[in-house]
Specification:
Number of helices: 13
Strand content: 15-25%
Shape: elongated
Number of strands: 16
Structural class: alpha/beta
Strand order of the largest sheet: 8-7-9-10-11-15-16
Length: 399
């Protein structure tokens, strides 16, 4: 009898443990519910919140949060709420991989990928293996989204380089061009490659090509002298705002008669120069899809909400990209007409495949323009040509 009771107790304990273990497992797509019973869709993002490129990661995170707050406040989906999870990569690819793993552990349902191209390249394959929809706001290198489940809000580098050359030609800005860029940065090189090809096609002359690296980005005197001596009329510099601010301060009084032209990496230049060096960035021209002073309802609503939440700060293009990325996720959910009850039952595989498929069927009227997506993950939209005047962006007018 003693042996029988011992055996029976063991069986009961095993059965109890099995039941307990089963109750702890996530079922379906892993959606959780909040205290009010709403199904929570967790959107995971990765980007630099500290370090040299923190302005980009912070802006994307803030813009995405505005969209999440807006969707939740409007009750866009009955019984469904959105939550933003965001991890600091410090701009490091390895940290981005670790961050993606943490987001998966935290129950991420949709991914914003990485803010920067390098970190997004490091995680896109993992995202593809999991099947989760990835829509990066701002990773622009061509090979960042080379998977079926990956999309982006921003232009890719080749698109910007080609468009920059065409803009220079169409607006008759110059015929003699100097190139200045970080030749160790994928973003810069991607822009330069297509710019040069398009410039040759359009009859624009590259008179000098000046480069630097992340370890030589403190003294640009040699490059500035070469640009001046080679008779350039315009400097095309598809670089980030921090390096651009250094270049402009050092070039002050030396290249004042040249046009300075860049792409979306220059967004942030006004704040970087500040009031003390505002004159150095005066008249700089850039291509960007976002214009904070635009008067359309979407942009105005986003800018007003951003200023209200973040102490009067004006959002830059990266913040707008983050905002639009979350709105694109919402549009994909609307396209599928997901309900709270469906999300409680749907499998991860089914949810992911339906979200990915919807991306090529939606049209989003966002703060960075009206956009659609193709199967390669690229977006179709039009850039704006802006110029810095008295510490603000204005629409560029030729001449």
């Amino acid at each position: 009898m003693k042996k029988f009771l011992t055996l029976l107790l063991a069986v009961v304990m095993v059965a109890s443990c099995a039941i307990s273990f089963a109750s702890c497992q996530k079922s379906g797509a892993g959606f959780t519910t909040d205290a009010d019973g709403n199904v929570v869709v967790k959107i995971g993002g990765i980007g630099p919140l500290t370090g040299d490129y923190a302005i980009y990661g912070t802006a994307v995170k803030n813009g995405a949060q505005i969209a999440v707050d807006e969707l939740n406040a409007k009750g866009a989906f009955e019984g469904i709420k959105f939550e933003l999870l965001f991890e600091d990569s410090q701009g490091d690819g390895t940290k981005a991989v670790n961050a993606f793993g943490k987001l998966q552990d935290d129950g991420m349902n949709v991914s914003l990928g990485g803010v920067l191209s390098g970190e997004t390249k490091n995680i896109v394959a993992t995202a593809a293996e999991s099947g989760v929809l990835l829509i990066t706001p701002s990773a622009s290198a061509l090979d960042c989204i080379g998977e079926d489940n990956a999309f982006r809000v921003c232009f890719n580098d080749p698109q910007q380089g080609e468009c920059a050359a065409q803009t220079i030609k169409d607006k008759n800005m110059a015929t003699k061009i100097a190139l200045f860029y970080d030749n160790g940065n994928d973003y810069c090189v991607g822009n330069i490659t297509t710019f040069k090809a398009k410039a040759a096609e359009l009859g624009l002359e590259i008179v000098t090509e000046q480069t630097y690296t992340s370890s030589t980005n403190t003294d640009f005197s040699t490059q500035i002298t070469a640009i001046k001596e080679n008779g350039a009329e315009l400097v095309f510099m598809p670089i980030y705002y921090s390096d651009a601010a250094k270049f402009l301060r050092q070039a002050s009084g030396k290249l004042d008669d040249l046009i300075i032209f860049g792409v979306d990496g220059l967004d942030g230049l006004i704040d970087e120069c500040g009031a003390e060096y505002q004159a150095d960035c005066e008249d700089v021209i850039l291509l960007t899809p976002f214009y904070a002073d635009a008067t359309d309802d979407v942009t105005k609503g986003f800018v007003d909400a951003y200023k209200a939440k973040f102490d009067g700060a004006t959002p830059n293009q990266f913040a707008a990209d983050g905002y639009d990325a979350v709105l694109a996720i919402a549009e994909a959910m609307k396209k599928n007409a997901f309900t709270a009850d469906q999300l409680k039952e749907i499998s991860a595989e089914d949810f992911n495949s339906k979200m990915v498929a919807a991306m090529t069927e939606i049209t989003l009227v966002g703060s960075t323009g009206t956009m659609t997506w193709v199967e390669s993950g690229e977006t179709n939209k039009q850039p704006r040509v802006l110029q810095i005047k008295s510490g603000k962006y204005v629409e560029y007018t030729a001449g």
